[in-house]
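One record is given unchanged without comment:
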Amino acid sequence: MKLIPIFLLVGMLAVSGWSEWSEDVKPEAYSPELVKKAEAGDAKAQYSLGVCYHDGEGVTQDYKEAVKWYAKAAEQGDANAQLILGVCYHQGIGVIQDYKEAVNWWTKAAEQGEATAQCFLGTCYYKGKGVTQDYKEAVKWYTKSAEQGKAPAQYNLGWCYANGTGVKKDEKEAVKWYTKSAEQGNEYAKKALEKLKSN
């Protein structure tokens, strides 16, 4: 099987700030009140406190402490915390690297409609990291994420259609998804469109 220019998970992490993944949720700044709310069991406060520890904003940076607070929020069903906790397990940040645990948390977030988690989960199924490789399942999650406007998922979905991976080969669908991704500035998608036009 040839290597493909699929938008790598690591690339998504490199271009995305921790608090930028979910555009609709801005973490609260560190304060004694935030700590009190988090300790009292407020999931949003726990997530915010995790971000503070992760980024070293208002407190000394401490990845293990960040994971502790992300986990508390994630266990209460906070999709943003589940997303980031999955990243921590995938990358081995504050915890021992564990792809299966990353998939576990991303699945929980993805099932709640969290688009970045859906794209990450698609990549796990595509590559067989933490789960059995399953291209159809990858396409399912890429589609959910792409339909919510995530450019990396749109590119990945376009690639799947262009190459008949997990879905019937369909150049028209490939162009559609590559175009949506390219319009958001995805360089991989722009190159893929140029390649399709030159064929």
In short: The domain at 24-112 is CATH 1.25.40.10 (Serine Threonine Protein Phosphatase 5, Tetratricopeptide repeat).
